[in-house]
Every structure is written in C-alpha cells, then in structure tokens.
Amino acid sequence: MPRTELNAWLLMLGSAIAGAITTVLITGCHTSVALAVAPDVAGAESSDSVKEFVKPEEILSSGEEWPQWGGTRVRNNVPNVSNLPDTWNIGKFDRRTGEWDGSKAENIRWFADLGSQTYGNPVVAGGKVFVGTNNGAGYLKRYPSQVDLGCLLAFDQSNGDFLWQHSSEKLITGRVHDWPLQGICCAPLVEGERLWFVTSRGEVRCLDTEGFHDGEDDGTVKNEPARIGDLMNTGEGSTYEDSLTSLNRGEFSDALLGVLKEGGSEAGDDVQITTLAENKSWKAIGTFDGVKRELSIKQMGPRIAIFKSLGVEDKKEADVIWIFNMMDELGVSQHNMCSCSVTSYGDLLFVNTSNGLDESHINLPAPEAPSFICMDKNTGEVLWTDQSPGTNILHGQWSSPSIEVLGGVPQVLFCGGDGILYSFKADRGQNGNPELLWQFDCNPKTSKWVLGGEGTRNNLIATPVAYEGRVYIAVGQDPEHGEGEGHLWCIDPTKRGDVSPQLAVKLEGDKRSPIPHKRIQAVEPEKGEAAVDNPNSAVIWHYTLADQNDDGEIDFEEEMHRSCGTVAIKDDVLYVADFSGLVHCLDAKGTPDGMPIVHFTYDMFAQSWGSPLIADGKVYIGDEDGDVSVFEFGAENNEPLEEINMGSSVYSTPVAADETIFISTKDKLFAIGLP
C-alpha cells in the first residue's frame, strides 16, 4: 500500500494514536535548529559549505545583494534595503528608433536593453545584475536579434554596461518543449563566482559569474562549440553548391566569408582549410577577427554551419563550468519550457524539472521521469530524484523550490504538477531517494481540471514561502488559461504524512475506503466518493473569499483569484497579487480559530504576473499594463502612493539591493535610485 494511503488508513482507524505519535516526534518544533547543527543535518562535506547554512536574514543583512529569486532560499522578497525612492520617471523612448529622451527622467540611474519578451527576474550579486530574456537585443554578432534564443545576460551593476551573454539555441521540437520567443524565464542562483540556472532546453548549467573577463576558462567544460553562422541552401542559384566546392578545394567562398564577417569572425589571410569528409565536414585554422582559432565547418541538412570554440578571447560569452541535460540524462519532457529558479542548501542544489504534458495537453510523454531532483552544486552529480506527481501532472511544472529549517528539520518544498505541495528532508537522501516528510493538496477534492482553464482545479505556479515556522502558497494556472477561482493557504509544516485539508474516500455503507489521488477530479460524488475532513490537516488558515464590507454578498474584489505570484511578508503583514490584478493584504497569522484576516484588496485594473517587493517601508508590485504600484507598507495603507508607468509590461518582480530598485520590463532593465 502506498505511504499516503497507509497514512489515511491510520488516521481513520485511530487519529488520536497518530496524533500522539506525531506530538512526540515534533516536540519543540517551532524553534530553529542551531547553526552548528545544520551542516550535519544536510550532509555537507566541506568546510566551505558551512557559511551557506547561516539564516537567510543574516545572509542579506547588509542589503547589498539579492543573489537568487526571492533573495534567499525561504523566497520571502523582503530585503534589508534603505533609501529607496517611492517615485520615478523613466523618460521617453522612441518606439521606432529606441532613442531615449531623458530630459524628464527622474531617479533613473541607468537602463539596459533586454529582449523583446522578458519574464526573468533580476538577480544582483558580485557587482553584477543577471536577468533572463530572449535575443531581441542582439548583443552578440553571431546571433543577430532576429535569431530566437534563450539568453541569460550579465550587466555591470554600477552603470548597466553589458558584460556577457549565455545563449541557448531553441530545441528543434519547437513549442512543445521550447516555446518561441519566451527566452530564459527563470532567475539564476549566485554564490561567490558561481551561478546556476535552468535553460529553456532543459539543462541545469553552472557558470562563472566573471565570464572570460578573468582570463580563465574554468570548469570541466572546455572549448564549448559556438555557432558563428549558417549558409542556407535556398535553392536559388549555385551559391550553396559553389561553397561546398570551395571548401573541398581548401577555400572559403565569398558567401561563407560574408557569414564569418556577420558573425564577428572575419577571416585573415593565413587561414588553411582541411577537408575531413568531402561535402560533409572541414576544419579551418588561422586568424579570425584577430584571434588564432580552429573553426569547425559542417554540412547539416539544408545548411553549411560554422562553429568556433569558446575561450578566454570571447569576453562577451559565458564561461560554462558544467552542464547537466535533464532531457537526455533523466528522460524529462518539459511542457513549453523549463523555468525553475534553483536554490541551494550547503552543497546541495534543488531543481524542479518541469516535466509535463505534450502538445495534446492530454498525454504525458515521460511518466517515469522525475519531477524533483537534488544535485551536488559543485559537480552536477544527481544525488536523488523523485516522481511523486506521477501520471497526475495536470499541465506543466514551472514552480521553484524553497528551503527552510522547520520543526528542527531542513525541509525543501516542491510544488508538484498535480497541485500538491511536497516537503522532503533537505539532505543527500539514501540510495538515490529523498525522505518525504509531508504532502498537501492545495485544491478542493471535488475541484475539476478542464482543458483550457475552464475548470476549478489549479496548478502551483507560485513559489512556497517560509515565514516564522509557517508555509504560504497560492494556486494558479498558465496565464493563457485566464482568470479563475483561487486559494491561498497557510500551512503548518511540522506535521507528517498526508496533511491535506481533506481525504478522498469511497463510501460503501458505513465503510470508508481511501482512494488514490486522481488527476482530473480527486473525488467524484456521483461515483459514491466523498471528501472527508482530515484529522491530520496542516491548514492554519485558508483564504478564497471574504465579505469585507459585510453586505452578505461576495464582490469581485472580495475573492482570491488564480495567482502566478508569490507572497511577501513582513511584521505579519502579507501581500500577494492575483492574476486578476488584485493586490491582497492579509494578516499572516490569521485568527486563533483558523480564519483569514483580510486587511484590504486593491484593484490594479490589469493582470499581474509577478510578486510584491517589501523594502524600506514600501511595497512595489507591477502589472501587465506596465504600471508599478507603490504602497506605503502597512495594513492601513490600502491605496498606492504612486502608480508609475514603465513603458512596457512588467511581468517580473521588482527586486532591491544596494539602495537601488531593479525592474525588468518586457524589453528593458532599469536601475532606479535616489541621486
């Protein structure tokens, strides 16, 4: 019998016994373990890792950096930053030429061009700003802006100068795995001179934050091949055939010389070409754009492709330390893209694989592939994998993990594609498997999944947040599915087993038999099934609607709708934005009898994809219309101080570091601060 079913049986047969056992196991669980204990708990092996186990609030006490999504592994977007502006003006941009008129700009320190669509959140560390986007800016000559890529860009934090770019070419399978123009949608993790992120191609990559600017090619990945350009066989004239003939003779055709020049590798006079396989492959050795190189040239289907090997001369390129391809190594089939913002605990790196459905939105191509993995962040070795959502994945899995010591145990929280929040012990596992601590179904058991978002069963797009011994998570769906019913949960993470609000059972007379979780609808009443209260429920409070004006009716503004956003909490005041554009402000603790306390809701009149930033006594939240609403922090402040337009949609979340707000809009990155 599966563990969850066994737990349900135990609860029904004798919840008092189970409760007594649980109490013994978790006595004193609301206090954090001492720092000296943490490395042993997590299985860290090197002294260099110990510093990673300091409490998140201590990591960012200076307010100088914001090194991962949510700032720390607990993902609460509340940096210790001061001297932030509550108003600014971005000036004007000519939509045709892109020229900036800064005559009326206010509090803009710098801006940098991003791609044409940007969903990645900025990360600030080591004097640099990193952000995921597409290739609309065309920073590299070898990849003009019309070439679709996933790009991770690095900028100088002080002035916005472009430093380097990591380029992920699109998968040939297209939108089912790597949606056009979406770019890199995750935020990287930065520790020291190392950076980890997930590409749109389903790879976990570790990079050197310095790129090749330090004059070193670090890591195990050496001389990584990089495409300079292609000569396509258009079928018009004989340029393509002439180029093959020229290569076989040991020469570049004029057409191929043009490809080299456009790709930033103009050939010198000393180039020698050797045929490796006639009409198939060649190598060229000589000077290209002033650098001695060996190029690889290949006939690939309807094109002749030219590649160089990246090295210390390529200052605008990323220096890759190691690569782990989840599609090749684990059989993962991500839906549309991978977009997990990874996090770490000591030497451990935690990743949601984004395994999901195919283009039919019905079939799961890789039901045996893992949904969650733990890796050694130094080597890329996979330590354990887990496939708990199994065949119950509703759509895709695009959330990111969080980690906190809860009840004296380091817990990594993963959002499953089945709408269930899973907690595992944040350690190296045993025999390739993690220890499951608890699981919480964030959907009502009678809710139903309907293609296209018409149903009431939801995914988990947001990231779970840990705050003062509790866990907070909102439900949502792919933004293309539109608005719908939402839920916000406050969860006790010290319980064990199935801690969902309800259990699914089959009714047969007086007998109640637990039933396995089902993808479309967990409980179908017409089949004699029922949802019964779970005596082991971890619900502290649950918010889906609240009659704030006590008129006996529920207005649009009094409902929690689907959300892509993650909560932010400070001094027990919680903010979250839903996809319908409502900013909800609640008491993080709730009432003693388990009810939510809603301070206010505010309608931004535009859909919101991002999450709030709480910093310097203010709250910042963006929307699809390109407005950033700035509130004075506090439960009584239900109207924004300012609504500032950023010129294009703000799909990301504002972050703050070093007395500066960083906001990535659809096509630009802004650094905003007082003079």
TrEMBL record:
SUPFAM superfamilies referenced in this protein's UniProt entry, alphabetically: Quinoprotein alcohol dehydrogenase-like (SSF50998)
Alphabetical list of InterPro entries matching this protein: PQQ_b-propeller_rpt, Quinoprotein_ADH-like_sf, WD40/YVTN_repeat-like_dom_sf
Gene3D superfamilies found in the cross-reference section: 2.40.128.630, YVTN repeat-like/Quinoprotein amine dehydrogenase
PANTHER family the record matches: CELL SURFACE PROTEIN, OUTER MEMBRANE PROTEIN ASSEMBLY FACTOR BAMB
Name by which UniProt lists this protein: Outer membrane biogenesis protein BamB
